[in-house]
Inverse folding.
């Protein structure tokens, strides 16, 4: 029996990067996984990969910034699998930009995906999780606990995810739902393409956010942290942040 046998998981941003790695890992642990992504084809590709490995996965088209889409996605997972015990909020976006050059559209989009999306999915999933207990793991960032240059909206959104996770953890601790956050530093994912240095960026400022190990993380490393916090091995862990940052925060 896998460590997630008998459990149902819902993973956002599951079409690529950390979300895909998390979905595959949970599937190998025998979770039945609802694979949620705004890119329907990518969601189906990840679900197919889980099924190829002998697991059970359902692709769900979800835009985490859209309340109706989130409701429909959670409802589809519950209808297919009868419940929910694990929620991993991985969907995210961001970029480096001089704050004076950032548009309101930039700000709104990053906050909508990274923070409001986590809120919407948590709010919709919580009534189902409360039926049998479960775990929520939200992917924040080291940018949510240590300032990054040229990333005002991203830092604000990820700091919000950390605070939201703590708030939910306290609210639901006595009702059987654990809530934690994972805070990675740089990870080799498609999102990295958006994080190119702006013109005239100060290399000294960038140096403070580079890991002393000189190594970026792989998606599978962050997925392992998510799976740990979602598992019964972390039964007494809630309201905390697990840093996967190569020592950036040390």
């Amino acid at each position: 029996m896998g460590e997630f046998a008998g459990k149902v998981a819902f993973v956002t941003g599951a079409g690529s990067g950390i979300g895909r790695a998390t979905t595959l890992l949970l599937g190998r642990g025998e979770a039945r996984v609802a694979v949620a992504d705004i890119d329907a084809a990518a969601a189906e590709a990840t679900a197919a990969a889980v099924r190829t490995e002998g697991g059970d996965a359902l692709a769900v088209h979800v835009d985490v910034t859209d309340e109706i889409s989130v409701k429909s996605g959670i409802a589809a997972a519950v209808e297919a699998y009868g419940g929910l015990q694990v929620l991993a909020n991985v969907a995210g976006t961001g970029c480096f930009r001089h704050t004076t050059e950032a548009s309101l559209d930039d700000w709104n989009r990053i906050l909508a995906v990274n923070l409001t999306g986590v809120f919407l999915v948590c709010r919709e999933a919580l009534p189902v999780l409360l039926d049998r207990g479960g775990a929520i793991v939200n992917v924040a960032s080291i940018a949510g606990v240590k300032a990054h240059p040229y990333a005002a909206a991203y830092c604000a959104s990820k700091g919000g995810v950390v605070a939201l996770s703590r708030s939910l953890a306290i609210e639901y601790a006595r009702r059987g739902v654990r809530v934690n956050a994972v805070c990675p530093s740089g990870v080799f994912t498609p999102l990295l393409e958006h994080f190119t240095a702006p013109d005239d960026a100060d290399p000294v400022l960038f140096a403070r956010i580079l890991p002393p190990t000189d190594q970026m993380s792989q998606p599978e490393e962050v997925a392992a942290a998510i799976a740990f916090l979602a598992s019964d091995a972390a039964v007494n862990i809630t309201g905390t942040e697990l840093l996967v940052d190569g020592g950036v925060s040390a």
